């Protein structure tokens, strides 16, 4: 009998269901994927950060030879409004929709003022680089050291502690650097040990750049360094401390440089925004804090920050969910687990702050002035509650409550009820004039999805009250936007619509498949919320749900939108979102056979060199629901779904980096391990059950 119990315990140890404390050695899982580098990269930084700020570094542990960015959730700038122009005069354009004229945020060039307003709204506000911290290194002749002069470079990102260790030599003299970010303050700490200090060959320089819309739209390196008269840096000295005040037009932020070891502070001659800290002895320790407000908090040392980083990251890794694939026979387990672990680190570093993330997190601005996309909030943040870290999504998801009143104003201004969420914005909730921004709609049901995820974990009246206004206002818009088509006897969507794939004409796009599916999910879930609160479901919500058009279909295949010409010869590129109705979404109203036929058609005819990012996990999630877990693994390791050495993801032709890739991976893995509503009770139902995969996990949650 004792042998039998032992045998059962061994079986349970490999089970994917039981949540046995300490079953996974989380530290071992994380640290076997520590990032080790010995070559400089011009675009892929190592990072430290806390979700509110992130600091990208090259192989020196600072921004010495590669000017990576210091980005934050609060660091924004707007160019001055052109003289004589009033932004509030923006008119947009009117477009016919279902027999009425609707004013949309479209670029207006009817006169010079409207053109200038359109330009200004496009570029402002934009996310800024807060500053660059770099070594000043000299060789034996007193000349500046170049990148190629460094010898024996070795860098390791210790994921468990959040500390970057960087080692290099100059003329055979070692330099050891440790870099970290405080978990609760926007503060970078650096510790340096080297004999170069005593030889007066190592110092640190901090520089502050200007900003403009033209500079901040996109690029690996943000900031204007050659227009010193367009911004100002003033400072005051204290005891081993300098307090900077930065002004860029009407915007202002603050920085404090503090040092724990003897050092001399000075302005760099011939510059207006660069300052030098020259240490003494053979050790240097300093911190640099950034803030939108004057910094009045108690000073914290570099040593204390390094310790705080260790504790903060240990707390993160020991909370939430974890997964261990090391018992698998399939040799691809290591790469898949590496992607998972690095994605967890990157999402905590870049995407756990006070605003929804931009596509490139806090690495750079990769095309949209640092602003965030509301349709991408799903792929950036859904993984947090699924990985049992709901609290890390909650800060930025408060955007729905913060923006609710202006979202209602947007809906009313366009002639609809409820609340209409923007497409691409900043902290302002002001849309910039653009066709996709005016007509994209698949972001609208997102808050209902997030509310339901939270309720599944916290099924309380408090949760219902927290989200009810947002859920109900969103549902009111969904019902109001749908139009009753008398000839069809159904409620339809559009035109004008820009679908998920953003590759069709907005005036032709009618009843797009994914949007119909998401409208169904949103309205159905909202009805449940009314019932939970013992409220009557408003008749328009129920009526539209009951009479919404079916999914468009041709030749037993779902198509992008109703009546689309030449679907499979002209539109097999960009996001294949028609398949998301049964994968990302639970499939309300889906004919499984037709869906499976469509999935096979996509696999055989879609241009996989022109999809990227979340497309691969979306396809994997459909494969899982269809009972094809082997294919799901293949898709998550596809050769155009690329994760570089730091875990930064991209694909051919995609922006770099593209964080929806990381969020999508974590979402798909949660689904594959923990399952989804209505799945089998098999262990890890989304992984192959062929003996090649052993999946041990803790605290993951099911997908709806």
Automatic annotation (TrEMBL):
InterPro entries: 6-hairpin_glycosidase_sf, 6hp_glycosidase-like_sf
Gene Ontology biological-process entries: carbohydrate metabolic process
Signal peptide segment: 1-18
Protein name as it appears in the record: Uncharacterized protein
Keyword list, A-Z: Signal
């Amino acid at each position: 009998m004792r042998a039998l119990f032992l045998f059962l315990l061994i079986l349970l140890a490999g089970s994917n269901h039981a949540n046995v404390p300490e079953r996974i050695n989380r530290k071992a899982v994380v640290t076997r994927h520590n990032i080790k580098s010995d070559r400089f990269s011009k675009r892929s930084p190592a990072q430290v950060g806390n979700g509110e700020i992130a600091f990208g570094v090259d192989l020196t542990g600072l921004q010495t030879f590669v000017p990576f960015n210091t980005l934050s959730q609060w660091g924004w700038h707007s160019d001055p409004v052109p003289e004589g122009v009033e932004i509030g005069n923006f008119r947009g354009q009117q477009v016919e929709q279902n027999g009425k004229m609707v004013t949309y945020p479209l670029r207006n060039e009817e006169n010079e003022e409207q053109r200038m307003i359109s330009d200004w709204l496009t570029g402002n506000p934009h996310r800024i680089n807060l500053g660059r911290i770099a070594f000043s290194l000299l060789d034996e002749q007193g000349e500046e050291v170049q990148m190629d002069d460094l010898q024996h470079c070795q860098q390791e990102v210790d994921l468990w502690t959040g500390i970057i260790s960087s080692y290099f030599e100059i003329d055979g003299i070692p330099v050891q650097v440790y870099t970290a970010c405080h978990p609760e303050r926007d503060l970078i700490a650096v510790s340096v040990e080297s004999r170069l200090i005593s030889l007066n060959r190592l110092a640190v320089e901090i520089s502050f750049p200007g900003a403009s819309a033209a500079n901040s739209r996109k690029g690996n390196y943000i900031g204007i360094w050659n227009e010193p008269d367009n911004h100002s840096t003033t400072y005051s000295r204290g005891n081993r401390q300098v307090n900077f005040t930065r002004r860029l037009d009407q915007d202002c932020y603050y920085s404090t440089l503090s040092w724990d070891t003897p050092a001399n502070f000075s302005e760099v001659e011939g510059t207006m925004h660069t300052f030098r800290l020259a240490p003494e002895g053979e050790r240097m320790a300093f911190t640099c804090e950034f803030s939108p407000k004057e910094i009045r908090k108690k000073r914290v040392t570099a040593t204390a920050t390094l310790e705080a980083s260790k504790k903060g990251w240990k707390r993160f890794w020991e909370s939430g969910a974890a997964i261990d694939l090391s018992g698998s026979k399939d040799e691809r387990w290591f790469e898949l687990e590496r992607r998972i672990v690095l994605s967890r680190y990157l999402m905590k570093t870049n995407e756990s702050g006070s605003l929804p993330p931009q596509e490139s997190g806090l690495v750079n601005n990769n095309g949209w002035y640092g602003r965030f996309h509301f349709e991408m909030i799903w792929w950036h943040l859904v993984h947090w509650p699924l990985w049992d870290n709901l609290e890390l999504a909650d800060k930025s998801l408060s955007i729905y409550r913060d923006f609710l009143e202006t979202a209602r104003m947007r809906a009313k201004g366009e002639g609809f009820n409820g609340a209409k969420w923007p497409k691409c914005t900043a902290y302002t909730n002001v849309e910039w004039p653009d066709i996709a921004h005016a007509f994209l709609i698949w972001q609208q049901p997102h808050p209902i999805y997030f509310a339901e995820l939270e309720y599944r974990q916290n099924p309380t009246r408090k949760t219902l009250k927290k989200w009810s206004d947002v859920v109900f206002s969103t549902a009111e818009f969904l019902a109001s936007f749908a139009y009753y088509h008398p000839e069809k006897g159904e409620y339809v969507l559009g035109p004008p619509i820009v679908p998920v794939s953003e590759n069709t004409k907005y005036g032709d796009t009618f009843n797009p498949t994914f949007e119909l599916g998401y409208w169904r999910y949103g309205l159905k879930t909202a009805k449940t919320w009314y019932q939970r609160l013992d409220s009557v479901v408003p008749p328009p919500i129920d009526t539209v749900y009951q009479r919404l058009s079916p999914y468009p279909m041709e030749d037993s295949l779902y198509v992008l939108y109703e009546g689309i010409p030449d679907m499979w010869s002209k539109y097999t590129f960009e996001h294949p979102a028609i398949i998301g109705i049964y994968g990302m979404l639970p499939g309300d109203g889906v004919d499984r056979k037709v869906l499976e036929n469509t999935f096979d058609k996509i696999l055989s005819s879609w241009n996989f060199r022109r999809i990227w990012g979340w497309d691969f996990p979306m396809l994997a999630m459909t494969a899982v629901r269809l009972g094809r877990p082997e294919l799901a693994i293949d898709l998550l390791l596809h050769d155009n779904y690329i994760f570089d050495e730091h875990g930064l993801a991209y694909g051919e032709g995609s922006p770099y980096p593209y964080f929806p890739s990381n969020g999508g991976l974590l979402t798909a893995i949660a689904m594959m391990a923990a399952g989804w509503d209505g799945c089998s009770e098999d262990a890890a139902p989304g992984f192959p059950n062929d003996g090649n995969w052993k999946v041990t996990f803790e605290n993951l949650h099911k997908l709806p």
